[in-house]
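Before relying on records like the one below, remember that each one covers exactly one chain. Contacts with other chains, cofactors or solvent are not represented anywhere in the record.
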Amino acid sequence: MKKLFFLACLLTTLQSMAQLERKLETENEPEDLIFHAPRHINLYTVEPLDKNTLHFAIMHTFGTLDNGGRNLFGLDNGANIRFSLEYGASNKFSVGFGRSGMDKVYDVFARYHLLQQTRNDAIPVSVSFMINAAANTADYSFLPEPRPVFQDRLSYAGQIMIARKFSDAFSFQLSPMVAWFVNPDPIFQIETTENLYLALGLSGKYKISGKSSLTLQYIPNLNNELRNNLGIGIDIEAGGHVFQMYFVTSQALNEQYLLAGGNGVPGEKFRLGFNVNRIFNLKK
């Protein structure tokens, strides 16, 4: 009888230790879905790609709402579209390229995920970096000489993403941003002739159901008098896609033009926009 009692106590102890070990392992895991996708309205997020996965994104903005009903509140004009592909070379590093309709800009970019928030708060925030190099390929043959050469058409951008998932419902990201135009020629679709642009991106997500969240984006400029960017929207997960619909004050869809391309007055100059995000698993 004593042997049976001892064996029962031993089994109970081993089971408790195993449960504690599993709990500790789970708590030390990275937080998942701080945001729904690698993109949040216009900005990159801390959401990494797994190794050998591919993120395909379509981004689209239309004309301003004050175009009225005759132009279907901007849907008939002022459209800008961007396609991008991003490949997860590892669980922390990804590379990609994209093309935006505004000024026919092609860009290459990379993201690196330095830290990932853990469930037990051993690491309280996620931190990622993004760098981008772009070239304007618009046709300026109608201009008299000297026309913009390739070097004049180059621009660069960088972004640091610092994010925290405060609860299952609420996540927030802070994104210091910089953009540099080699030659900010007035012929380009930007608002000033400055080379350097600094801004601070603010992104928020509030989950309203298991598959959808309200979203907010605000990007105040730090070194110029351009209007600040504002965006509000909703993210919806459906069938392996993340659909993002929003109203935003900027027509631009890449970082350089997002900072330098100007913004309308919130409400009066809002534009309807949408993103479609899809991640493909390329593992064998």
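Residues 31-281 form a domain with the Porin fold (CATH 2.40.160.40).
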